[in-house]
Amino acid sequence: MTIKERFLQLCDELRTDEQFTEIVMKATTAAEALDIEIPEQIPGQGRCRKVPEKFKYSSTSANEDHHVLTLEEYYRGKLYFTFLDILRQELERRFREREIAVDNNEVLKIFIEMVPNRRLLL
User: Fold this and answer.
1) Is residue 79 part of a domain?
2) Which domain of life is it from (predicted)?
């Protein structure tokens, strides 16, 4: 298995609710230890956009409330899974099999050094 394949596999393994929950718990513990205030409101939901009058009574869903239920759901969907999806797509694009050369493998090795659970990749 190549370094790229191992890294993509790690991205897939990290893209679970369990992994996200573990990261949130560690981040919450660290924030509390450092006396950092943990946000309670989803970013951008403090202000609601006013629906234009012409759309208020249309059959479209412009007037429906599309709020995420919890802060954790917001960060899971909007940040964590989105980040992992983009990371995986970009790695696949950048390190296509026909393009892999020594330089690309060196870049991946350097990137792996930054991963906390790098023993999973090696």
Assistant:
1) yes
2) Eukaryota
